[in-house]
Structures are given as structure tokens and as C-alpha cells.
User: Which sequence fits this backbone?
């Protein structure tokens, strides 16, 4: 049974491996280049609390140099869903073509067939997701040291949450396919559902998984250390009670060389009585948010896979 399940699963597994190999070809050369540039420019010494003008210039030059490819890697957040629905395809194709009936007439019970088909798909999905995590985490290491991991594009590709995303894509594709029994439309619907769910979590749900922290500081003072690499949800001028305001800054605008007009932070802070206020999740919450989100997607994935197995067991003749 295991050998037969692998024979039916191997085409999609090889396609998933080819996708990962393509990502390796894209990322490894630029990853090596980025790591060498980070070391050559001595950026490790520029990542302390106090930096010089030359350090700021070096960091800015480095991020500008690799900004475009970093933006491209942000789109790799779609890959877990693609891998998940792809690895659900053999299960749905068996239902569409009716080949499961042959297995069920060869002394293989429905439960054993379902365990083999879905169990192998889950194992392949986890292996592919883990490989993707290792690759992207290695590639992003220099950028993470500069900017942290709380930005959505980075958060979605590192840690353990990719495992939950991939299983969710697999479960959604299998559940829709079990009911519809049409592989191509079912997997398209599964991927679209994955995409919509991810957008909902990224834009609305994730910031509400934990209560955000708040910080208020003088307008002309450095921002608190807790904001370093943090996910800032909202930041701006506030009154002394931490309520966001839109200050009238006309009296605090001063003339500069060349006719330019600049805002004087000291004026806003001391004369007008304004402060800066931020609502944020600190960088220390990375693993807590990862664990909660992985648990949510993982639990939904288990429910979807269980539903696909139940529906096939009870409703398929």
C-alpha cells in the first residue's frame, strides 16, 4: 500500500521538489553575495544602540542594494499554499478518476487507504515546508539582523508558521476536492481560499492575537529601545495622556538654508507640549505570535484533513 501510494504521489512530490530547487537557484547566489557584502562592509559593528553617520550610510547602502530582491522574496509567502494544494492533488485525482475502487477491492480497507494517501501527503508537505524555512531563513539572515523579523514579509517566511500554512493549503485542497471530485477546479478554489485567509490574518487578525504595548516619549528624544525591530501598528504625535493628535505646527516651523522650512521637534516637545506615542508588538513576541498563528492554521488544517477523510469514508461509493 505504501509503495502504491508513493507511486501515485511521486509526480506531485517531484514537482514540489522542482519548485524548491528553482528557489535554491534563485536565492543561493544572492544569499552568498549578501552575506559577503554584510561581512565586507563591517555591518555587524553598526548594529549597536549608537551608530555613526558612516554606519547609517553603510546600512542604507546595503539595504538599497538588496531591496529589490528582498521584495521579490516577500512573494514567496504564496509558495506554502502552492505546495499544499499541489500535494493534495493525488488524493483528489484518485477520487475524480475512481481509481480508489481498485484499492478498495484488493483487501485494502477505506481507513488504511485514507491513512496512506493523506499521511504521505502530510509528510511530504511538512518536509517541503521545512526545507523552505531553512532556505529563506538562511537567505534573510543579514537583512534580519538589520530590520528584524516582525515585518509581515519576513514573519510569513520564517519560524514555524510556514508549516501551518502548508498543511492548511493541503487540507483546504483535500476538503474541497473530496466534496467536488474535480481536481483542477477544486485545487484552484483551495489556493484562492488559502490566499484570502492569509490576507485576512496578515491585515487584521495577527495584530490582535496579543494585546499590543504602548510607549510615549518626548518629541525630541530618541525612541524607546523597545521599538527596535518592533512591529509598529501606529505611531505619531500625542498629548501627554498618549492620545493621538494632529498638532498645529505653524509656530514650530523654522526657515532653513535654501528657503526650506523645517519642523523644530524641540518646539513641539517643550513649547507646544506634544509627545510621540506608539502602539506596537516588540520583537520579543516573534515566537509567541508564531506559535499562536501556527496553532490556528494547524488546527484548521487538521479539521479540514479530517473532514476530507470522513467525507470520503462515508460518502464515497
Assistant:
Amino acid at each position: 500500500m505504501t509503495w502504491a501510494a508513493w507511486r501515485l504521489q511521486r509526480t506531485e512530490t517531484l514537482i514540489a521538489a522542482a519548485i524548491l530547487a528553482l528557489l535554491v537557484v534563485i536565492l543561493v547566489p544572492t544569499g552568498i553575495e549578501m552575506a559577503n557584502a554584510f561581512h565586507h562592509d563591517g555591518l555587524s559593528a553598526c548594529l549597536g544602540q549608537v551608530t555613526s553617520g558612516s554606519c547609517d550610510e553603510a546600512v542604507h547602502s546595503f539595504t538599497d542594494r538588496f531591496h529589490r530582491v528582498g521584495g521579490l522574496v516577500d512573494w514567496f509567502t504564496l509558495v506554502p499554499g502552492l505546495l499544499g494544494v499541489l500535494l493534495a492533488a493525488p488524493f483528489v485525482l484518485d477520487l475524480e478518476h475512481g481509481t480508489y475502487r481498485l484499492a478498495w477491492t484488493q483487501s485494502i480497507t477505506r481507513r488504511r487507504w485514507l491513512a496512506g494517501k493523506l499521511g504521505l501527503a502530510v509528510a511530504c508537505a511538512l518536509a517541503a515546508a521545512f526545507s523552505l524555512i531553512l532556505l529563506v531563513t538562511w537567505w534573510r539572515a543579514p537583512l534580519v539582523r538589520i530590520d528584524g523579523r516582525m515585518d509581515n514579509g519576513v514573519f510569513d517566511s520564517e519560524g514555524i508558521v510556514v508549516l501551518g500554512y502548508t498543511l492548511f493549503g493541503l487540507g483546504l485542497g483535500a476538503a474541497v476536492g473530496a466534496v467536488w471530485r474535480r481536481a483542477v477546479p477544486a485545487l484552484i478554489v483551495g489556493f484562492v481560499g488559502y490566499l484570502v485567509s492569509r490576507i485576512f490574518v496578515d491585515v487584521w487578525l495577527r495584530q490582535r492575537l496579543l494585546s499590543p504595548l504602548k510607549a510615549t516619549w518626548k518629541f525630541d528624544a530618541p525612541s524607546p529601545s523597545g521599538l527596535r525591530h518592533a512591529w509598529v501598528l501606529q505611531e505619531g504625535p500625542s498629548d501627554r495622556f498618549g492620545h493621538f493628535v494632529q498638532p498645529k505646527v505653524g509656530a514650530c516651523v523654522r526657515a532653513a538654508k535654501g528657503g526650506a522650512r523645517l519642523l523644530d521637534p524641540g518646539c513641539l516637545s517643550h513649547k507646544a507640549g506634544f509627545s510621540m506615542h506608539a502602539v506596537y508588538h516588540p520583537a520579543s513576541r516573534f515566537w509567541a505570535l508564531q506559535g499562536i498563528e501556527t496553532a490556528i492554521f494547524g488546527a484548521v488544517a487538521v479539521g479540514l484533513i479530517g473532514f476530507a477523510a470522513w467525507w470520503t469514508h462515508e460518502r464515497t461509493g
